Amino acid sequence: MLKPVKKEQGKVSLYSNILMILTSVHHAYGAVVYHTPWRMHILFMSVPMILVTLLLNRVLQQKADRSGWAWVFGSLVLLLSVMMIGTYEGLYNHVLKNVLYFGGLSARGMAMFFPPSMYELPNDALFEVTGMLQGVVVIPLVIHFIGWVRGLLNSTT
């Protein structure tokens, strides 16, 4: 694997792990504040994801070629970090929710997009800030992920 690809991969690993740590803290805090212990379920995904990402990044940093492990690494980061946490949890569940709420969307409209049985309307600054930060961290993650994939694809030609 070329040096620029390894550098991008390292950044992908870093931002993915920042996102997973942030979501772990966010959900643990939400479980306590909102008396919803089910929010802790995310730790069963985020902690293993951190460990697997660190391990695969280390293995791939030592490999000189593209391997199936690179695609395992990329698939996990894309599905779990980018799509599930960064896009859905960060951008939809928090950034969009706060924009609509503070933008004046009616209570009925908020309930339609964010059913009260699943969502809390903004009422705790730390919970909302850590939630929105997930949407912020996904941006550099996506940028470096795209650079990493391009580098992998170009290294075959």
From TrEMBL:
Record flagged with keyword Membrane: yes
Keywords: Membrane, Transmembrane, Transmembrane helix
Transmembrane segments: 12-32, 38-56, 68-88, 126-149
Descriptive protein name: Uncharacterized protein
Organism: Chitinophaga arvensicola
